[in-house]
Amino acid sequence: MKRISLTQHLIEQQREHNSIPAELRLLIEVVARACKTISHAVGKGALGDVLGTAHSENIQGEVQKKLDVISNEILLEANEWGGHLAAMASEEMESIHPIPNRYPMGEYMLLFDPLDGSSNIDVNVSIGTIFSVLKAPEGMRTPHEQDFLQPGTRQVAAGYAVYGPQTVLVLSTGNGVHCFTLDREMGSWVLTQRDMKIPAQTKEYSINTSNSRHWHAPVKRYIAELEEGQGGPRGKDFNMRWVASMVADVHRILTRGGIFMYPADTREPDKPGKLRLMYEANPMAFLVEQAGGAATDGRGRILDIQPVKLHQRVPVFLGSKEEVERVTAYHADN
Ligand code: AHG
Ligand code: MN
Ligand code: MN
112: which of 29, 131, 225, 233 fits an S-S bond (Cβ 3.0–4.6 Å)? Predict the structure, then answer.
């Protein structure tokens, strides 16, 4: 079988859909290269100085792991000098990161969760990187946080890497979702799945049930009905999976369907849910919709939300369309 590299795929997509100009291709290739470097660091484990805590906190008040900091540095360094970006923003940095003056400024803006699933690093469970690409507003000279606050519908590309038994990169530039596997010997990304599609129906759900006592009524109702199985209102048995790395849970859903939920609950009403809109929910919602699934905050489409701040949180329901529509309808009934 002829192997198609990431570069060849991007060039062919540009020819076919005119959706990947050279600067955007460079950006995606640089991010992919950074993910390769992160994958290499992850793979060292106890043999490298990569496990454990960095003894610092991020803007969310979460203790940073060494790999959170290392991955953030790798992405910043890789993307600074190419001339394709105007600014970057990351889960691990309170403020945006403009491109230093010594480098030319490009027209794109990159947001990332450098290391998703931090609680799984030290226990050797799949983790990943999530990224989102926006265009800088017309005429922007000095980038500010405000310039990033665009709804997810304006993303020109989004993707994630999973560092698991295999390292994969899943990508969309608005013409379907495509998966690449890292050939570790060759150091290259090879197209291994074109046009990933999420089945509309599923028997698998994903939620951290240890929070169930805090859930709001629509989520309690939805999960209770799933748990009742064949004898309940749904008339079929459901299975449950929770990796605690969004990248791994979403990758499973893109591969074989399912619904993933991280709802808001009765705790801290000013922090709805756990996941961040701009570099977790938006890129994943973009990919899921491109694969025929749906993504809502329980009320409306995630991609339509007008962000008000960089690190804002959002409730997330995403995956197989019929299930996402059902749990969203339960919120409307409430
Ligand atoms: P991060 O490691 O970037 O902070 O993200 C972790 C997120 C997400 O990946 C995962 O779905 C969720 O937190 C896990 O939450 P619980 O600890 O509640 O299981
Ligand atoms: Mn994350
Ligand atoms: Mn993270």
Answer: 131
